[in-house]
Amino acid sequence: MTVPATDILAASTRATILVVEDNVELRFLVSDVLRSEGFRVVEAATVKEAVAFLKTSNEVSLVFSDIVLPGEMDGIAFARLLERDYPHIKIILTSGEVSRDAVPANLMLMRKPYILARVVTEVTRALGLEPAE
Predict the structure, then answer these.
(1) What is the block-wise mean pLDDT of the chain (133 residues), using blocks of 10 residues?
(2) CB neighbours (10 Å) of residue 122?
(3) How far is residue 30's CA from residue 41's CA, in Å, rounded to a whole number?
(4) Strand intervals (E) in 37-127
(5) Dist CA 127 CA 133 (whole Å)
(6) pTM flag (> 0.90)
(7) Beta bridge pairs of residue 18
(8) At the fourth CATH level, which superfamily is domain 5-126?
């Protein structure tokens, strides 16, 4: 499904993205770029923080998560939890260390280092907000 370009900004301001990344600088950078595109962004450094937020909000449309994270749960286990408990949430995983073979085929993997413009493109695409051509 495509949305007219004039409707993308309006739709993106209603979409909340949960960015889960333990690298503070990268988390801030990705979050700032997504905010500049009109998305609401919530940040978490760990899966534990992300899950705590999800328990208090039903507004998250997409999770953009690193795979290698501190704590008891990595990004792949987190994605499985999301699929089970929050099936409406879209998921994009990122990693510079984990191979595509380690990620379930139904999940999107963006390899690090990634281009920030591609992050916006993939988030927009995952949410079904691609501009009409």
Answers:
(1) 46 81 97 96 97 94 96 94 96 89 88 94 92 52
(2) 17
(3) 10
(4) 40-44, 60-66, 90-95, 108-111
(5) 17
(6) no
(7) 42, 63
(8) Response regulator (3.40.50.2300)
